[in-house]
Amino acid sequence: MFLKEYVLTAGKEKQPVETHSACKGNLRFVPVDIACFSTWLKLNVHDGQQRHTFQVFDVVKQGYWNREGGLWDIYLIFFEEQAIGTFTCSFYPGQPEILNFGGFLIDHNYQGKGFGCMALQKLIQWVPRLYPERKQIVLDVDPRNRVAVRLYRKLGFRYRGWRPPFFRIYERDLA
């Protein structure tokens, strides 16, 4: 039952958004619901990357045990008809202009093909349309995940600070 609550934000159910043509196909974000839950659970990264990112089960656990009282929207990233990744958008009281981006992963079968970059570029364009009140995207990253840090910087995210025990926080203004 809790999953449906986190797919909703402020009482509005999210619908799949427009597609983005790239790599000779369409990339789209679809809210996770009961119909695609089993597909979502199958996403995974390489063994050596697990220390850098939440696994899907961890995202469920974090969303369910959200101690700070925020709302979570969980999305699948589809390329054509294949689920290739996931991410979360979360919102917290006292931060009305910030979208917290997390739980981002591209399935190990689709890594190294530009899908992470495509998904983040689309996210930067998509957030102002779906969440118009949000003016900034904030994320935290394991600094040992050099590929992710390089990608975030390439797309305009700047270092903001750190969060114990060792995560680095990056931000990007929208508009």
What this model shows, in words?
The protein has helices at residues 2-7, 37-41, 56-64, 115-130, 146-154; strands at 8-9, 12-13, 20-22, 25-31, 71-79, 82-91, 98-106, 136-141, 158-163, 167-173. With 175 residues, the chain is α+β, with helices and mostly antiparallel strands. The chain contains five helices and ten strands; from the N terminus they run αββββααβββαβαββ. Residues 1-23 have low confidence and may be disordered. The strands form two sheets. An eight-stranded mixed sheet has the order 3-4-5-6-7-8-10-9, sandwiched between helices. It has a two-stranded antiparallel sheet with strand order 1-2. β5 (71-79) and β6 form a beta hairpin.
User: How far is the first residue's CA from the last residue's CA?
Assistant: 36 Å
Using the coordinates above, name the CATH class. Alpha Beta
Low-confidence stretches: 1-23
Alpha-carbon Rg, integer: 15 Å
Q: CATH topology, what is it called? A: Aminopeptidase
What's the pLDDT, averaged over the residues?
75
Total of helices: 5
The counted number of beta strands is 10
What number of structural domains do the residues give?
A: 1
Keywords: Acyltransferase, Transferase
Domain N-acetyltransferase: 27-175
Organism: Acanthopleuribacter pedis
Protein name: GNAT family N-acetyltransferase
